[in-house]
């Protein structure tokens, strides 16, 4: 008799369950810098094979349990938990690219990631080409160079809700044996699992929806476990060639999991991206209720977006759940269970109207964060996207009157009431 795979909700609660402590149903917190060795041979074996635990920077039981949990939620083979979402992006890119290499990235990405590509990786000899029309596979194909080592994009882009056609872009990558890395933070694995559509690697800012309560930082890299040394080896000599001292190659030792093994062995610990076991525990606790929260947040967001679209003071609403959104059909194809809870809307009256709204919300919290159980609001043009030119912001759908919201789990009537009170004054701010 074939046993059906557990559902998402069941995996969220049971995947990665630790049995290291006799009767602890909750994952134990191993808040320790290091671990005792039983004897001389135990220490030598650990350093020779990497098995077991020696020092939390290279492995910890609490962290390991949460890695298994998040890998299961993303339908991945394995995962590496790190200290922040930015660390996850950096580790993923440095796992596949090095000096003299090239990355092709969507233009529609988080500004911190864009800064990493333009200001930091460029200093290490890794160059990036940006694709504006991410819905055109030929645009991705045209940007690929002989030294391209990764394609990078977000499943739902911050902030205009551009939806990535994952299958189409990953197919382009497959033509050249180049992995597609998808930042799935906004969609979460509850709504979308990019590895199931052809992506090779998924990254998250676990500080957002996975943890869910705005209390800790964390990030995760999840790999599909399908690295093909024969096909992709020419793009990844560091994975297929012997290591220092004649050590067998990463691919020889780990097969299809070579990429994530290299991230765990040679990138994350050496760049010091280790998360606190306490933070790992809280991320794992948050992930257990991910589906419940994201379902409620998505439902609230759709109701609020529909309401905003009908308001006199609102010029436009960029939410993929609305039929008016340019990528609504893609959202219908890829997202299941909702359309996410982060979107932008633009007010008539420009900067003055946005300033008024920010200064007068009550239920919404004004802060730079997303994916919280609480509803948040921010003015992108003067904060997250301040370093972009006016033309670049226009391309991204960010204008002086644009506000970004991250919808929480409050009663939707209270959220609409808060916005209604604030927007009542917007028509008066429009210059006639």
Give an overview of the whole structure:
Helix content is 39%, strand content 13%. It has 432 residues and is of the alpha/beta class. It has a seven-stranded mixed β-sheet, with helices on both faces. Strands 8-9-12-11-10 form a five-stranded mixed β-sheet. α7 (166-175) links the parallel β4 (148-154) and β5 (180-183). α3 (61-73) runs parallel beside α13 and α4 crosses α12.
Strand order of the largest sheet: 1-7-6-5-4-2-3
Give the DSSP E fraction (strand runs of 2 or more residues).
Answer: 5-15%
| Gross geometry | globular
Q: List the total number of helices.
A: 19
Structural class: alpha/beta
Question: Termini, distance in Å?
Answer: 72 Å
Radius of gyration: 22 Å
Q: In this structure, how is the largest beta sheet organized?
A: 7 strands, mixed
Number of strands: 12
How confident is the prediction overall: mean pLDDT? 94
Question: What is the helical fraction, as a range of percent?
Answer: 25-40%
Detail the poorly predicted runs: none
Task: List its salient traits.
single chain, 432 residues, alpha/beta, globular
Care to give the gist of this entry?
The chain is an alpha/beta fold. It has 19 helices and twelve strands.
Which helices and strands appear, and what pairs or packs with what?
Elements: H1 8-14, H2 40-49, H3 61-73, E1 78-82, H4 85-96, E2 102-106, H5 111-120, E3 127-131, H6 137-143, E4 148-154, H7 166-175, E5 180-183, H8 188-191, E6 201-205, E7 219-223, H9 229-232, H10 237-240, H11 250-254, H12 258-267, H13 277-288, H14 290-309, E8 314-318, H15 328-334, E9 342-347, H16 350-360, E10 365-366, E11 376-378, H17 390-395, E12 402-406, H18 412-423, H19 426-429
Parallel strand pairs: 2-3, 2-4, 4-5, 5-6, 10-11
Antiparallel strand pairs: 1-7, 6-7, 8-9, 9-12, 11-12
Helix pairs in contact: 1-3, 3-13, 4-12, 6-7
